[in-house]
């Protein structure tokens, strides 16, 4: 039975994602994303499940930054999970009593219209996770009056649901990934995604375009690009890329090795099956057979067979 670390405590959306991704795994709650990834890195867990991207908010920066540094980890699976937030209170609390709300920063952003409309004067404070907020609010002497979290977190910690589906959009989805220590990659399925982090060799006009060209000329479709600060000063950024295909596909392999040539560093974060099951459109001349045929043609002309 694999042991998987996750952003805890019990009742987070991440736990729900883990239960779906690995129903038989032993679940090890961690205080934050960094701790969950470190548990996987140091062998206290066999892997971890962490949030990576939200359909409203974009990349989950704590995860993006943690995956870009420290001992490398590989993404081996992904899951798309609809997220529905509830307003949870201790029994007896009424709407008009709510002055201080506790929740995860991602939930603060996703429920901004609701909190501004219903509680214009309330303070909304960041919690380590939505379930950590619910757990805290359940304490009789908590300084917070309400948590925004999954309904299940309310059940876990004895809270009452005062309002349901309080997110600004009812169709919000978070993408979660399962990571493992480096090892064999998941087999290509024909519906795969690859992730990596690329660091610029030097800052010059067109540097980003050079990276994008490596994908474009091989017909590799990007599904996410995100710049994150390196921390070395204003204007210094590195780039997260997600794109269609598996590194075993010729066009993807060529694009990744092209990036390796033009960047100072490329950290490969894995090739894994896509949760949505979509297959890439293969542009003319970029199928595996096209690359193989071109390679044998090149070998022939190099041998003087024209
Ligand atoms: O706090 C949680 O319940 C989490 O699993 C984290 C998280 C996130 O980081 O995006 C996951 C899904 C929601 O978008 C809100 C919070």
Characterise the protein shown here.
This protein is an alpha/beta fold and 306 residues long. It has 3 domains: 92 residues, 3-Layer(aba) Sandwich (D-Maltodextrin-Binding Protein, domain 2), CATH 3.40.190; 78 residues, Periplasmic binding protein-like II (D-Maltodextrin-Binding Protein, domain 2, 3-Layer(aba) Sandwich); 123 residues, ACT domain (Alpha-Beta Plaits, 2-Layer Sandwich). The protein has 10 helices and 15 strands. The strands form 3 sheets. Strands 1, 2, 3, 4, 5 and 11 form a 6-stranded mixed beta sheet that branches. It is elongated and about 85 Å long. 40% of the residues are buried. The mean pLDDT is 96. The site of prephenic acid has 15 residues, from α1, β3, α4 and α6.
The fraction of residues assigned to DSSP E strands is: 25-35%
What number is the mean pLDDT?
96
**CATH domain class of the largest domain:** Alpha Beta
* Helical/strand content category: alpha/beta
Question: Which small compounds were modeled alongside the protein?
Answer: prephenic acid
Q: Biggest sheet: strands, sense, closure?
A: 6 strands, mixed
Please name the CATH architecture of the largest domain: 2-Layer Sandwich
CATH fourth-tier homologous superfamily of the largest domain: ACT domain
What gyration radius follows from the Cα positions, in whole Å?
22 Å
Site (Essential for prephenate dehydratase activity): 174
GO molecular function: prephenate dehydratase activity
Catalytic activity: prephenate + H(+) = 3-phenylpyruvate + CO2 + H2O
Domain ACT: 196-273
């Amino acid at each position: 039975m694999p042991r998987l670390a996750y952003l805890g405590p019990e009742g987070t959306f991440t736990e729900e994602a883990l239960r779906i991704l690995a129903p038989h795994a032993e679940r090890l709650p961690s205080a934050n994303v960094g701790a969950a990834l470190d548990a996987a890195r140091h062998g206290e867990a066999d892997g971890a499940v962490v949030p990576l991207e939200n359909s409203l908010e974009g990349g989950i920066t704590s995860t993006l930054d943690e995956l870009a540094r420290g001992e490398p980890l590989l993404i081996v699976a992904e899951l798309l999970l609809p997220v529905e937030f509830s307003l949870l209170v201790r029994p007896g609390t009424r709407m008009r009593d709510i002055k201080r709300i506790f929740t995860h920063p991602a939930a603060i952003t996703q429920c901004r219209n609701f909190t501004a409309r219903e509680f214009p004067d309330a303070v909304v404070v960041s919690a380590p996770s939505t379930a950590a907020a619910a757990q805290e609010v359940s304490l009789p002497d908590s300084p917070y009056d309400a948590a925004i979290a999954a309904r299940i977190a309310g059940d876990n910690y004895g809270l009452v649901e005062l309002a349901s589906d309080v997110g600004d959009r009812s169709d919000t989805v978070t993408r979660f990934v399962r990571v493992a220590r480096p090892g064999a990659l998941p087999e290509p399925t024909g519906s795969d995604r690859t992730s990596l982090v690329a660091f610029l060799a030097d800052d010059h006009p067109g540097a980003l375009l050079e990276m994008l060209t490596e994908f474009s000329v091989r017909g590799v479709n990007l599904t996410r690009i995100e710049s994150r600060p390196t921390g070395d000063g204003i204007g210094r950024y590195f780039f997260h890329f997600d794109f269609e295909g598996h590194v075993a596909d010729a066009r993807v392999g060529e694009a990744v090795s092209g990036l390796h040539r033009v960047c100072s560093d490329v950290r490969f974060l894995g090739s894994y099956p896509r949760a949505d099951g979509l297959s890439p459109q293969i542009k003319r001349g970029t199928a595996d057979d096209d690359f193989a045929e071109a390679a044998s043609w090149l070998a022939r002309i190099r041998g003087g067979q024209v």
